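Duplicate of #3305? Posting structure anyway:
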């Protein structure tokens, strides 16, 4: 597997119809957190959206949902979390792919997927992808042939892929624990409940809880094994009182 990070000018992507016009009049930055489903005609993605100015309330967003979907070409969107301090929304969106993106996805043949870092602002788009080398080369050749302006920031033949580069976690555990971290399940205080996280993941709360606990257990066991005597000292009587 290869990883590839490209930089585009936002102005160019808007002219090509890949970014909605006027998107950054209201928003400072958009970050792709996770692609849950990617088809030739549509995609389902978890996004962090940073707004210019104060955040709208959940009620205001609900009342304006039809206009928002029409304006940005969304089939659906769900507010997952509001973060007033940083002026961020975490949203789940299902979006139709423009024709040019459909052609690129067809060329990739399901062998290329977006990954982090993937951020958009008014000046530039930093987009990262992971996939088979031959598929990535096909896409780059198409971009060159269509005189699509871009710059390669980074290319790697051995990217770290949770669940592949290390047997520590299964692919499912790596995916779900990463999603839980991004959505604030491990924040103090928690920003999302297990029940809501389960709904976002399409699983039952007890089932998701078991997956997360098993992943956490593996991570703790690996840490204890790596720390050796240092971990034993942390478990000694009175250690928690000293650390707190």
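Output from current build:
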């Amino acid at each position: 597997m290869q990883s590839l990070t490209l930089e585009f000018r936002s102005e160019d992507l808007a002219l090509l119809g890949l970014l909605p016009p006027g998107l950054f009049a209201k928003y400072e930055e958009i970050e792709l957190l996770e692609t849950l489903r990617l088809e030739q005609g549509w995609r389902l993605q978890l996004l962090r959206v940073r707004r210019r100015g104060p955040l709208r309330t959940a009620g205001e967003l609900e009342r304006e949902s039809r206009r928002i979907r029409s304006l940005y070409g969304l089939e659906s969107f769900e507010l997952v979390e509001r973060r007033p301090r940083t002026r961020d929304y975490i949203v789940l969106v299902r979006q139709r792919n423009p024709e040019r993106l459909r052609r690129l996805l067809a060329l990739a043949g399901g062998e290329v997927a977006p990954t982090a870092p993937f951020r958009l602002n008014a000046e530039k788009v930093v987009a990262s992808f992971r996939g088979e080398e031959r598929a990535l080369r096909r896409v780059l050749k198409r971009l060159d042939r269509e005189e699509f302006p871009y710059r390669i920031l980074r290319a790697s033949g051995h990217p770290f892929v949770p669940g592949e580069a290390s047997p520590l976690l299964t692919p499912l555990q790596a995916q779900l624990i990463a999603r839980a971290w991004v959505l604030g399940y491990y924040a103090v205080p928690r920003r999302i409940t297990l029940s809501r996280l389960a709904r976002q993941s399409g699983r039952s709360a007890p089932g998701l809880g078991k997956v997360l606990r098993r992943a956490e257990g593996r991570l703790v066991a690996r840490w204890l094994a790596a720390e050796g005597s240092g971990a034993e000292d942390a478990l000694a009587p009175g250690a928690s009182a000293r650390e707190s």
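Confirmed duplicate; merging threads. Residues 68 and 146 are 31 Å apart (CA to CA). The first helix runs from residue 10 to 15.
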